[in-house]
Amino acid sequence: MGWLWTIANLFVLFALLLIVGVGSAIFLEAFRRRCNHDQDQGDAHAVFEDPNSLKKVPCPWILDPAEKYISLIIPAYNEEHRLPGALDETMNYLQQRAAKDKSFSYEVVIVDDGSADATNRVAFDFVRRYTIDNVRVILLGRNHGKGEAIRKGMLHSRGELLLMLDADGATKVDDLEKLENQIRAVARKELQLQDAPSSDLSARISDIPIAAFGSRAHLEEKALATRKWYRNFLMRGFHIVVLLAAGPGIRDTQCGFKMFTRAAARKLFTNIRLKRWCFDVELVYLCKHFGIPMIEISVNWSEIPGSKVNPLSIPNMLWELGLMSVGYRTSMWNIRT
Description:
Blueprint: H1 2-39, E1 47-49, E2 56-58, E3 68-76, H2 83-100, E4 106-112, H3 119-130, E5 135-139, H4 146-155, E6 159-164, H5 176-193, H6 201-204, E7 211-215, H7 220-226, H8 229-246, E8 258-261, H9 262-269, H10 279-290, E9 294-298, H11 313-329
Parallel strand pairs: 3-4, 3-6, 4-5, 7-9
Antiparallel strand pairs: 1-2, 6-8, 7-8
Signal peptide: 1-25
Protein name: dolichyl-phosphate beta-glucosyltransferase
Family: Belongs to the glycosyltransferase 2 family.
């Protein structure tokens, strides 16, 4: 029986070493990201390049007053094939709406997340066609992750409303009106509670923190029937972990179609730290922390070939969720108010 006792002791020792090792790794990573986050506050000094005049255009900053009605932020990593079609559709919609409504102003901010293909060439072609006032490109130099690309785009946008959407065009751009209308409805209620005149809505909407989350939850039953069993298993497991990390409230945290008022974006994107897949979950967590109203709205969505997400992404997602939980619960990640 002595050898059984020895094996049991070795097993317990191995488990303790594993826990300490993982805990130390999370602690060190949280510390490193806290330092990097503090350094990133120099982002306000970045510039855009105008490919027509080759002049540098100073970046706006999220703390500046809004100059446009809406900003569309598109993160792009190796998207030279899918980006042109999505941008054509987006620009057609925006131009048609601007032609009907003279008060409607917009910008599209494309964030090239260190692409190794011709994504930046495609993006700058659209700047030449539509001018740097309407289309702007941020080059990150190396790949940081979707969350970081969207954070940079949000911080350097000029809109009263800020919409993030994917470069593949999986969600129809005109669905932004669904999110926009719900945000305006919530803003109107907020203003009524403050006894502000309804005519003041357009001037005040950017000052009221509200977040609208596009959702594919209504398509879940069909997706479960068509996906392979192991993908459904992994996805259900991921949803449980998200529930534990951020709590209930949003059924589909991972849809890449989200809209924020400028006031909400200021609070959220000056605090967000996760750089890759799970930044969406951190957004939910931060919305709850700040008491920002969250609206979940069904959108039209279709599967576009070429997705960057695969089963191997799940361990990275779990790592980020663990990192977020440790970072906030130990107060290593301070939240700026």
